[in-house]
Amino acid sequence: MARFVFFGGKGGVGKTSCAAAFALLCAKNQQKTLLVSTDPAHSLADLFHARIGCEVTELAPFLFGMEINPAEESTRYINRVKNNLIQVVSPVILEEIEKQLDAASISPGSEEAALFDKMVEIINENGNDFDQVVFDTAPTGHTLRLMALPELLGAWLDRLMEKRRHALKLSGMAMRKGHEAEEIMAKDPVLTLLSNRKANLERAREVLLDRQRLRFVFVLNPERLPVEETAKAVGVLAKHGIPVNDLVVNRILPDDQPPGFWQKRKVIESSYLSQISQKFPAQRILHIPLMEMEIDETTLEKMAVWLAPLLEIKEADGVEGTA
């Protein structure tokens, strides 16, 4: 099954470019690679001068792309729930439930839940078709909420199943069929739906916690806010058992700068590079220089050279968080 590589980081640090460069590197090494964008501000299509949608699209030999639209996935998710309910809920209460679902579709967190469902689908269904699946994620806060969902959704599904079993048991007792409760539960379509979703969630969670198959790479610039945000994010992910193996420090200025503005900027940058080394002793740190030209396929190939170590899995991957 594929290795899954997540690129995260603060908005504007260049994580899309790094994710695309790494995916291109994998493809150049003849590894069948799927590059998935979960960022609402999609730019993969612009990078590769191609139309990319929610279906797997070939971009180059061994390289395929997909752009997930969180709003569309949320609508699709709610419609899927409605279709499932039609089969198991009385028409008398179906209309009221649909109103509640429509309200839920625009509530905070609905897009993250739908997006995570799509990621689970990609991990479970596309993982066997590719050697590498590379996720270009949304800015840090969105990504952290997304990665915290397995625990929240797992607990929520457990409670729903417990309540459903209790209701079925009471229903069986009311009909004097308590001895048939297990058989009723085994055939109950609601429990079947919930159990299947829990199983899919557990398979995806196994991937997220598997240090040999999951790589989480944070991209940052040598500046105060990206450094601080990355330190917090690494710590949060560690609490959820998700290791951050590598950091990519992007857009580093050349060493030889003339006196004046750029030399001052280089001195400041050097101090942050030193801070990064001290703050993240457990992570492998890769450096990418500031590119002279705008980002295109040629630039991505140059960036890919600096990302080559990501193709290797370190022997000691006991990565802890940083406070």
Automatic annotation (TrEMBL):
GO molecular function, one term: ATP hydrolysis activity
Protein keywords: ATP-binding, Nucleotide-binding
Domain ArsA/GET3 Anion-transporting ATPase-like: from-to ranges: 3-301
Domain of life: Bacteria
Pfam families from the UniProt entry: ArsA_ATPase
Gene3D superfamilies assigned to the protein according to its UniProt record, in alphabetical order: P-loop containing nucleotide triphosphate hydrolases
Family: Belongs to the arsA ATPase family.
Protein name (database record): Arsenite efflux ATP-binding protein ArsA
Organism name: Anoxynatronum buryatiense
